[in-house]
Amino acid sequence: MPHQKDCKPEPGFLQPAIDLNACEGKGPCIPACPYGVLELKLLTGGEFRQLSFFGRIKTRVHGREKAAVSFPEKCHACGTCVTACPEKAITLTRFLP
Ligand code: SF4
Questions:
Q1: CATH number of the 14-92 domain
Q2: What tens digit of pLDDT does each residue of 83-97 get?
Q3: How many angstroms is it from 44 CA to the middle of ligand 1?
Q4: Are strands 65-69 and 90-94 parallel, antiparallel or unpaired?
C-alpha cells in the first residue's frame, strides 16, 4: 500500500524485475542501488536452460553472471537501477504477497 503522506510507495511495494535474457551481467545496477537490493550471481543450470537461444549465447559470452534481486523488501522504487542498466533489462514491478 503506498504511503499516504508523501504518496511514495513503502519499501518493497515495487521491486525490480530482471529480464535474464537481456541482462549481460555488467553490473552497473549493483553500485547504483543506494539500498543494496541487487547482487551479481551465477545462473543455476535450471535458470540457464530457461533462457532463449540468444539469451544462452549472450550468457555464455558474459560468464553466466546476472543481476539478481536479493533483497526485494528493501527496494524504494527510486528507479536508479533502471536507468543504470545499459541493456534496459530492469523494470519496476508490483509484486503481490
Ligand atoms: S529501484 Fe532504486 S531501490 Fe529499488 S532496486 Fe532499483 S536502485 Fe535499488
A1: 3.30.70.20
A2: 999 999 999 998 776
A3: 24
A4: unpaired
